[in-house]
Amino acid sequence: MEFNLQKTDGNARAGILKLAHGEVQTPIFMPVGTQASIKALDFNDLLELDTPIILANTYHLYLRPNDITIATLGGLHEFTKFPRNFLTDSGGFQAFSLNNNVEHREDGIVFKSHIDGSRHFFSPQKVLDIQYNLNSDIMMILDDLVGLPASKERIISSINRTTKWAQEAITYHNFKKQITADSNKILTNNIFAIVQGGIDKEFREASARDLTSLGDFDGYAIGGLAVGELNTQMYATLDFTTPLLPKEKPRYLMGVGTPQDIVEAIARGVDMFDCVMPTRNARNGTIFTHSGKFAIKSPRFKLDTQPLDSKCHCYTCSKHSRAYLHHLFRAGEISYFRLASIHNLAYYLSLVRDAREAILKGEFMQFYKNFYAQIENIS
Predict the structure, then answer these.
(1) Does the annotation list 75 as a binding residue?
(2) pLDDT tens track for 155-195
(3) Does 288 appear as a known binding residue?
(4) Which residues act catalytically here (predicted)?
(5) Which residues are catalytic?
(6) pLDDT for residue 377 is more than 70
(7) Cβ density class 125-160: b for 16+ within 10 Å, e for less
(8) Cα-based distances in Å from 132 to 58, 173, 190, 210, 251
(9) What's the CA gap between 94 and 111, in Å, rounded?
(10) 218 labelled binding-site residue
């Protein structure tokens, strides 16, 4: 993997991430494809949106259809026929979200399957083996994610466990790279560490220091945010966390978020984002636009012949009116899910691309001000 930092504007960064399945211009938003599929869309839709990278879920794909099946069928790219990049998470978030079905141990995490109740153990090595089988371009290490608020003792144990697992993961990954090189092959899977520490500066510094001292990671994620803290607390945490990470490596804020969260995080030096929000909210009737968000079910859209967003050039906005999307949603038509999801993802992708263009021009602060001026003026 190669990451070229092209331009900075304040703390905001524009770069190019070179992976095995194509370049990724940053800042970038990664649509979430939990089951190796973006809900309601196919990969032609993703290619039309010029999506360079998507996220898939290690835990869910391990359970169904299972990683060995996917490896047998050629890995995620051959299995799905999506020719661009995949990032796969580690299962740490599932340990958080499925808390009642999880047992944390010093050597890993025991899951109780939400599908059939069977028990499975994820160690740092096991998580990487699953992702090698998936053959994702970026692999996340196993981490111990803590919801907020949390006790000091719980956060300290999270940091210590995450660092221990990171050491085991990078040692194992370097071993895999060596044996692959010995067989005259190249391992194209890249590995990111995950900084924990809640919203406490001291804890974040300790986690970042410990992880960066291990060396060899291809990038660094900021985990453990958007899990119960206030937005202002998240932004303050980013303020003191991003400077702790190597400038020459990509920075990934996991599971975030709203358009405002993304703009604020870009302003603080974050390069990569993922979130289910654009597609999940689309299916629930919320439309994101350059002027803010609205609920398409509102009666005021019944006779509205405007596109969802006059500044958007996606398929949905170029072909259909608010009135039609309002009708489809009210009628429960499946086609609504696809059309709304296309638009919301187009908006998110255009948001990070516009931010990138502004950074390259040295105009990010004007972009930042315009963003808030537009959403504050929505009627």
Answers:
(1) no
(2) 999 999 999 999 999 999 999 999 998 888 889 999 999 99
(3) no
(4) 89 (proton acceptor), 274 (nucleophile)
(5) 89, 274
(6) no
(7) bbbbbbbbbbbbbbbbbbbbbbebebeeeebbbbbb
(8) 11, 10, 10, 25, 22
(9) 9
(10) no
